[in-house]
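4.2 Preliminary Data

To establish feasibility before requesting continued support, the project team ran the inverse folding procedure on a target of 150 residues. The structure was first converted into the token representation described in Section 3, and no sequence information of any kind was made available to the design step. The complete token record follows.
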């Protein structure tokens, strides 16, 4: 299940990562800020400490997904003709990316534990999942409507 979630985020990240989509990325960031603000119930002091930590985490997470996964995507143009050795190398690289993503999240959690109660960190994890579900639903709905247009 975790690998499917990661793949989903990676694919979504690649879509957002294109230079032409910077406007979309900024819009999503604003929506995320509003959603988290509403769902985390941060005090003013907590918010002042939370957002720099979370934004640094989110930027690094995004960069890892976009930069590294885009490289892999460019290199793997024809999955059907991928050799076992090439597939093995790609899996090795994916493991490294997964580890970096995990370490980035662990680092954020350690920092947040110093400034937020545990319950708010748990709310953050739920808010992230819920926000991403809503975002993916909107994305699917929007693209579904485009495909059905003549």
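Position-by-position output of the design step:
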């Amino acid at each position: 299940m975790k690998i499917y979630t990661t793949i989903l985020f990676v694919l979504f990240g690649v879509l957002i990562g294109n230079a032409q989509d910077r406007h979309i990325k900024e819009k999503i960031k604003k929506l995320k800020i509003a959603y988290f603000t509403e769902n985390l119930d941060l005090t003013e002091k907590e918010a002042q400490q939370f957002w720099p930590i979370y934004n640094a985490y989110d930027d690094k997470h995004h960069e890892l997904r976009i930069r590294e996964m885009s490289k892999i995507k460019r290199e793997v143009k024809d999955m059907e003709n991928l050799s076992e050795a090439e597939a093995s190398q790609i899996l090795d690289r994916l493991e490294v990316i997964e580890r970096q993503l995990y370490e980035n999240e662990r680092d954020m959690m350690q920092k947040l534990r110093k400034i937020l109660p545990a319950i708010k960190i748990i709310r953050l994890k739920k808010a992230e999942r819920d926000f991403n579900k809503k975002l993916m639903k909107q994305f699917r709905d929007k693209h579904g409507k485009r495909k059905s247009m003549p």
